[in-house]
Design a protein that fits this description.
heterodimer; A: 116 residues; mainly alpha; Helix Hairpins; 4 helices; 77% helix; B: mainly alpha; 6 helices
Chain lengths: 116, 169
């Protein structure tokens, strides 16, 4: 119990600063890149892209909150970024439904009509 | 500080569910894990005191985008049977590439000296929503009226475009 209290006291003594947010979002970004490189289904690729977009949004908000707390630029930029990624998702899903209608599946290996 | 514990819990949720979202075999589970990642991100915004941003994140992402994913998954039917998988060598190469990139980023972040501002509990003066609304709709020096209107036109174009792309020929 004493040891638990010690650990709790140490954790409570550590403060969150900007680099914690940046490390978290960098890891999230590269998880997304790994998914982007290994997935073969267009919807799963879009899920990875969504992870990367969220990592970038966290960065905007964290920079605004911790380095420039008097401005609202990062806040507003994140709002616009969320709106644009929602638009991007809608278009991408429309394209995927069209692909599915023509090819009966959604795998990127089959999408070679425009290749040459 | 309590901020530290909440941050660590949210980071664990985000990273764990993120890794599951990109490694799980079934796409439906990947979409569900993505939803938890998005909730975790919303939690980070709430932790920073950006409550409006957190609510937008929950509404647009968890309420809109994930539902859109699940609809698209259901419309495109079951594809688990002949799901082509990437070869192990390619997976390994992708893993090495992402680990190298992440290592480079982490090195750059850790060695850089940032300002020593710590995350304090959100107070009255951390960006009230009224100020945000005034700034979004003003055309003065720090106003964002033009981008705001352009985003609305973008969303309209996106609605029309996705209807045209997805309609039956």
């Amino acid at each position: 119990m004493d040891r638990l209290n010690d650990i709790l006291n140490i954790v409570l003594g550590i403060h969150v600063d900007i680099s914690w947010f940046l490390i978290l979002s960098a890891l999230m970004m590269f998880i997304g890149i790994y998914g982007f490189l290994t997935r073969r289904n267009t919807l799963a690729i879009l899920i990875s892209v969504e992870l990367m977009l969220n990592a970038a949004d966290i960065n905007f908000a964290a920079f605004n909150r911790l380095l420039f707390p008097n401005g609202q630029e990062g806040y507003i930029f994140t709002l616009f970024s969320i709106a644009i990624s929602a638009a991007e998702t809608a278009i991408a899903i429309a394209v995927m439904i069209n692909i599915y209608r023509n090819l009966k599946n959604n795998f990127v290996g089959n999408l070679d009509k425009l290749k040459w | 500080m309590a901020q530290t514990i909440i941050f660590l819990i949210l980071a664990a949720i985000i990273l764990g569910c993120g890794i599951m979202a990109v490694t799980t075999k079934r796409i439906m589970r990947a979409a569900t894990y993505l939803m938890f990642v998005l909730f975790g991100t919303a939690g980070l915004y709430f932790l920073m005191g950006y409550t409006f941003l957190g609510s937008v994140q929950v509404m647009v992402y968890a309420g809109g985008v994930v539902v859109l994913y699940i609809f698209a998954l259901m419309l495109t039917g079951r594809q688990d049977k002949k799901n082509p998988t990437v070869s192990l060598a390619k997976k390994f190469a992708a893993l090495v590439a992402s680990l190298c990139g992440a290592g480079l980023f982490l090195f750059a972040i850790i060695t850089h000296q940032f300002a020593e501002n710590i995350l304090t509990p959100p107070s009255e003066q951390t960006t009230p929503v009224s100020l945000l609304g005034e700034q979004l709709l003003s055309s003065d020096k720090f106003g964002y009226l033009l981008p705001f209107e352009i985003v609305s036109i973008l969303l309209l174009a996106c609605i029309v475009g996705s209807l045209i792309i997805a309609r039956k020929h």
